[in-house]
Amino acid sequence: MTKIPEVWIFAEHQQNQIEPTVLQLISKAQAIAPTFKVVAVLLEAPDQQLEQTLAAYGPDQILAVKQSQLEQVADVEQAMILQQLVQARQPNSFLFGATALGRSLAPRLQAKLQTGLTADCLDLYFEDELLVQVKPSYGDNIMCEITCPERRPQMATVRPNTFAAVPVEADQVCQEIEVLTDLTWPKVAHFDILNEQVIPTPPASLAQADRIVALGRGAADPASVATARQLTAALNAQLGVTRPLTDDPQFAVSNQIGQSGQTVAPELLFCCGISGAVQFLTGITQAQTVVAINSDAQAAIFGVADYGFVGDAKAFMTALNHALLAKNA
Amino acid sequence: MVELTAAQLMLHQMVQEFSANEVRPHDMAIDRERSFGSDLYRKLVDTGFLGLMLPEQYGGAGFDAVATAQTIYDLAVGNASVAVTLEGHYKTLDQLLKYGQPSLLDRYLPSATQRIFAFSMTEPSGGSDHSTLGSTAVRQGDHWVLNGNKIMITNGGLAEVYCVLVKTAPTEFSVFLVDQDMPGFKFGKQENFLGLTGTPIGEIFMENVVVPADHLLGKVGQGHEIGDNAHADARVLMGAVAAGIIEHELELAVDYAHQRKSGGQRLTDLQAIQRKIADIALAKETTALLYEEAARHKAKGQPYAEIAAMAKTHGSRQAVRAGDDTLQIYAGYGYSLDYPIEHLIRDARALEIAEGTVEKMRAEITQLEVAQRI
Amino acid sequence: MKIVVCLKQVPETNQVKLDPVTHNLIRQGLAGRINPFDRHAVQAALDLKAQVGGEVIVLSMGPNDNEYCLREGLAMGADRAILLSARAFAGSDTLATGYTLSQAIRKIGAVDLAFFGRQAVDADTGQVGPIVAEFLGWPQLTLASQLTWTDQGLQGVRRLGALAQTLAVPLPAVVTATRELNDPGYLQPRQIKAGFQQPILTWNEVDLEADPARLGVAGSPTVVRKILAPQTKTVPTQYLNPDPQAAVAELLTALQAKNLL
Ligand SMILES: Cc1cc2nc3c(=O)[nH]c(=O)nc-3n(C[C@H](O)[C@H](O)[C@H](O)COP(=O)(O)OP(=O)(O)OC[C@H]3O[C@@H](n4cnc5c(N)ncnc54)[C@H](O)[C@@H]3O)c2cc1C
Ligand SMILES: Cc1cc2nc3c(=O)[nH]c(=O)nc-3n(C[C@H](O)[C@H](O)[C@H](O)COP(=O)(O)OP(=O)(O)OC[C@H]3O[C@@H](n4cnc5c(N)ncnc54)[C@H](O)[C@@H]3O)c2cc1C
Ligand SMILES: Cc1cc2nc3c(=O)[nH]c(=O)nc-3n(C[C@H](O)[C@H](O)[C@H](O)COP(=O)(O)OP(=O)(O)OC[C@H]3O[C@@H](n4cnc5c(N)ncnc54)[C@H](O)[C@@H]3O)c2cc1C
């Protein structure tokens, strides 16, 4: 009987937390390769228990290397360990998050294995055992499909937050956890970590913010502004306004979005009580997901919205605050 | 666009990037504050813009007329005042290189990578007509003594070295180099101009300024020729400024007409708007062709005065007109001081006056056509 | 110190279009330029040279017009330039590119440091630096955002998300440069002129003593199968329940599925 092809996922972690992309990749691999064996490959220190997090997303197997040398480890060493595992078990494909570490480690491993690697994929699917990798190029201006027809494993790094991570039902939680404790690898030149520091990302300026709650004249009363400020705190978002609100001394032009204000490019933008004048809209063309809240169903802002709520802005923000509080509690 | 050599292309890419990152973001502030500020000026100097067309032997980069005009264009797309400051400097260096005596050039040109030079002809009594000039130079032994008042000098106040057109006899004109450090040299007031407000434009006074004999450019009596030559050099670059302004207008017009909708249609779908945008694009292309052709002639050593006059005559009017069309596309917003269009029109308007009025240029073009044909 | 900086020439703009019929990239008329990250790599090399002395060599693989990016490296202040150009190199993916560059670095000999950009802005992989490091058996400092030369040797900082690692790297090593590493400023017009007056050495596969099976198309495991225009998303607005509580619940589910919360 031929062996069931395996899809491996490198279980990157940092500060004792699994990198979210790993969980997204487990869910994606299950969806595109239901008949393959999905294996999460984890390198951790003996006192770590990260396989628990992985198991909840239902990979078919977790392959954990638990050794004290893994407390602090260079990319080169991780590549050597993975090389041994791959050569022993011959997976069909090996996926990494396109994170700083993934993009550093995967090509190093690729060169050891002399196989192909596709960078920063936005989609993946199988044609039989051939992995078709869809990646953007030229700054996302074109997409290409890349394959690695001859050599194995087929390797890819995948852009974070491209797929949803879906925890599985209790009865599908991964049971097959294989732990290796006695791997050895040769000593090679590698960097030494002198110091590691978690640097809290400074509050982004409006132009750089990933999340923005923007207020217009339909949400300019003090109660709405106060509700919006709670919302920005809960979402770790920045507050933006339309031009008319800059007459209010609590807002400056640096808070204003639009042609004569800031151009913004958040992943998530709430537009509360904003009509959608062209001078405002030119400032938000780069926003990825737009939620519009306006009492007028005909307002132009709905023309650019992904999600629309026709109704009172303050009521919506209040409900959202409650829901977020409940969720975080 | 003109064929550029690989080195010229690399220069062009650098200047485009400089213009987009360091100049354009300040475009409206430069107009409003009536200055492009010491930071940007420092960056221009430090990046080596002042020595761009100066031969390598004086510490410059030795780029030719084509690359120089392209540079002025690229900067003007960012902001015309910045481009005009360099235009005034380059045209002055051109006259020194052509007419200056070697001893003078060796003393002065190495500093031209660090400080601005200016060329001044205009006086309160007139700009188009030099016969009324009141400034004089009188020979005393192996020196000359200069007196007079010059106005509306591009970079006047910022420039440290001036070439001045003066009378050496009642109907004899000559050009001398004077330095701001010379006793008797004084700055006057800054002009309160409508446009190009970021370019310093000012006045100087000379009271018994004594200069050595080698400060005379060319020969005694060659002043008119040098003045005309300075105009021709300046006009190549003013054509490039005009084309740069039109490119900025075109960018604004297309951008807005594409976004703005009326009656469910984009403005770009309306015939009346299409006519304006097509005209602006045509204006940009014709102006660019003219200044590039003038620059190419100059680089090859062929006559270029007439085509340079055409580039400025055509380009200056087109830049005003294209600005007017752009304003109309933006309508109410175009008329707003919050948008850059109004200052582009004010900037463009200067090009119909500076470096010879369009009337004067038409007269010159006519004379040259007559001379060639009759 | 002998420092090599690898330069890739990329199209001047990323606004490339697809031919609607052939689905080929329309690239004519696009001037090339140096990969923007590679400027930071050159600047880092020059800064290090200014501190410890030595030589900076710029290296590029590609057709003859890649000379242009090498001239830019020279204009920035590199001491000499080597172009790797041969039919045999055409069609290289990152593995073959990495192999070819590593052979050139071997041939240059006694190299202490090889700098790369963090990624090329066209193909966007960022793989070549680590691959070269592997083929040379050198340690790698990827995504360097700071670099200092101390009594103990080379130290650098890289960011892994919120984590900043300070690393000591033994030489010889590979470093990939980010924008944060330094500010290369603008080329001086005079330096541009000077850059065009220097000679450029060209090497082919024979000079590199390369294994032909590892070069170009033959040495490239990946195949670009198809090139597509990205789908422009014109998703219609999804209207939420008119009741605020129900609307919020609906929205949170949708945003979570998109990893936006
Ligand atoms: C030269 C110029 C430059 C400009 N630049 C900018 C700029 O950079 N940025 C900018 O934003 N504007 C700019 N403007 C102004 C722009 O034209 C609009 O006037 C402005 O964007 C409108 O702001 P708004 O949407 O907050 O207000 P309005 O247009 O008054 O819209 C308010 C909206 O709130 C809705 N509403 C009312 N009550 C409620 C409620 N209880 N709950 C929910 N919705 C409610 C209404 O239905 C309406 O749609 C500029 C204008 C000019 C002339
Ligand atoms: C932005 C700017 C920068 C300048 N920079 C400089 C500089 O660096 N150095 C410098 O010396 N000057 C400079 N000038 C001055 C400029 O050269 C003069 O303004 C110009 O030559 C016209 O002179 P004028 O203003 O005295 O007008 P006049 O010469 O008095 O002309 C008045 C009117 O009569 C017309 N006219 C006059 N004579 C004739 C003729 N023969 N044929 C047809 N029409 C005629 C003119 O076209 C104009 O319409 C600058 C001006 C501006 C606006
Ligand atoms: C649309 C498209 C998509 C592609 N996708 C993939 C893919 O997913 N996987 C794959 O293996 N190949 C891929 N390729 C092939 C890849 O672009 C080439 O192998 C290229 O030569 C190197 O890869 P890169 O551009 O990604 O460089 P990167 O690895 O992103 O470049 C990093 C650094 O390496 C150095 N460098 C890169 N190329 C050169 C060079 N030619 N000369 C000198 N230094 C250089 C530079 O310092 C550069 O900053 C793709 C090509 C195209 C056109």
Automatic annotation (TrEMBL), chain A:
Gene3D superfamilies: HUPs, TPP-binding domain. CDD domains: ETF_alpha (cd01715). Residues 7-197 form the Electron transfer flavoprotein alpha/beta-subunit N-terminal domain. It comes from the Bacteria. InterPro entries: DHS-like_NAD/FAD-binding_dom, ETF_a/b_N, ETF_a/FixB, ETF_alpha_N, ETF_asu_C, Rossmann-like_a/b/a_fold. SMART domains: ETF (SM00893). Belongs to the ETF alpha-subunit/FixB family. PANTHER family: ELECTRON TRANSFER FLAVOPROTEIN ALPHA (PTHR43153), ELECTRON TRANSFER FLAVOPROTEIN SUBUNIT ALPHA, MITOCHONDRIAL (PTHR43153:SF1). This is Electron transfer flavoprotein subunit alpha/FixB family protein.
TrEMBL record, chain B:
Its cofactor is FAD. Residues 5-112 form the Acyl-CoA dehydrogenase/oxidase N-terminal domain. Its EC number is 1.-.-.-. SUPFAM superfamilies: Acyl-CoA dehydrogenase C-terminal domain-like (SSF47203), Acyl-CoA dehydrogenase NM domain-like (SSF56645). Residues 231-366 form the Acyl-CoA dehydrogenase/oxidase C-terminal domain. Keywords: FAD, Flavoprotein, Oxidoreductase. It comes from the Bacteria. The keyword Membrane does not apply. GO terms for molecular function: oxidoreductase activity. Pfam families: Acyl-CoA_dh_1, Acyl-CoA_dh_M, Acyl-CoA_dh_N. It is an enzyme of class 1 (oxidoreductase). Residues 118-209 form the Acyl-CoA oxidase/dehydrogenase middle domain. The keyword RNA-binding does not apply. Belongs to the acyl-CoA dehydrogenase family. This is Acyl-CoA dehydrogenase family protein. It comes from Lapidilactobacillus achengensis.
From TrEMBL, chain C:
Pfam families: ETF. SMART domains: ETF (SM00893). Residues 22-212 form the Electron transfer flavoprotein alpha/beta-subunit N-terminal domain. It comes from Lapidilactobacillus achengensis. This is Electron transfer flavoprotein small subunit. InterPro entries: ETF_a/b_N, ETF_b, ETF_beta_N, Rossmann-like_a/b/a_fold.
